[in-house]
Amino acid sequence: GYGSLIGQRPLFEPMSLQQVYITSPVLETIMIHGMTTEKEEVMGLLLGNFHGHTAQVVALQIMQRKDKTEDRVEVDSEQLAQASQLAEQIGCSVIGWYHSHPHITIKPSHVDVSTQRLYQYLDNNFFGLIVSVFSHDKVTKEGNIKVIAFQSIENPNSGQLMEIDVPLSILDHPEELGFIGHRDSCLSKLVDLQNILLAEERESYIRAVEYEDHPFSLIHASAVYKKALCRLLEKSCSPLLHILEERKIQNEKTIQRLAHEISILEARSINLFP
Question: Which of 116, 159, 217, 224 has the most CB atoms around it within 10 Å of its CB?
Answer without folding.
Answer: 116
